Give the backbone structure.
Amino acid sequence: MKKSIYHISEMDCASEENLIRMKLQDYPGIAKLEFDLFGRTLKVYHNRNTEELTQQLVSLNLGAKLMETVVNTDNIFVSETEDWQQRRLLWVVLTVNFGFFLIEIIAGFFSESMGLFADSLDMLADALVYGMSLMAVGAVVSRKKKVAHISGYLQILLALMGLMEVVRRFIGFETVPEFKTIIIVSLLALVANSFCLWLLQRSKSDDAHIRASVIFSSNDVIINVGVIVSGLFVWWLDSAIPDLIIGTLVFMLVLRGAARILKLAQ
């Protein structure tokens, strides 16, 4: 068994990780993949020809470069219990994100808040990424690509519709959203995301999916605080402008995430 270590310059989130997993999933002779998103490195435990493996990674156009190949002396065994615990943790985070996607999109509609609507799409984007992370093992590649296509285009469609509504409200009549709903729902979302972040950090896992989930949950907490602050400014200024600003920023984040997901379907 050999261990090949690659530096992948454009691998900085779970989307690139899933892209690599899909590429190598059905490639025979690979025992395990270890991702370090922060260091942008990948360890491949295999008994394949290293040049062939390198060609597979280079074809993804993520800047993959072989650093070294050595005889493996590491213990690469991962217990079924550990794998099950990580899956259960990801299912909890996925459920919370999808649940608050439904809550916030309904609350955003009735309160006429673009901030809540945009945050709901961000929750949906995270839920879809967690779902694809759970599909990383055992799923058929064609199914993953189909899910990635649907997820990416759905997010783009909803985000563009949201941005069009933001523009309409900027240039048209100004509807002041219900600030109480914005603040209360965002506070609940903040509590939920903080709980997810606590669970993920408590796991102390070095698994790339878990560490990526920590980053997503941390970003969600920041966005929740931003929406709460916008709600306070809506109340203070009696204006929809703060809500439109935060909505625009979050919609842009959703579009960026959708582009990464579509990359999986190429």
About this structure: The helical segments are 14-24, 50-58, 80-111, 114-134, 141-171, 179-203, 208-237, 241-264.
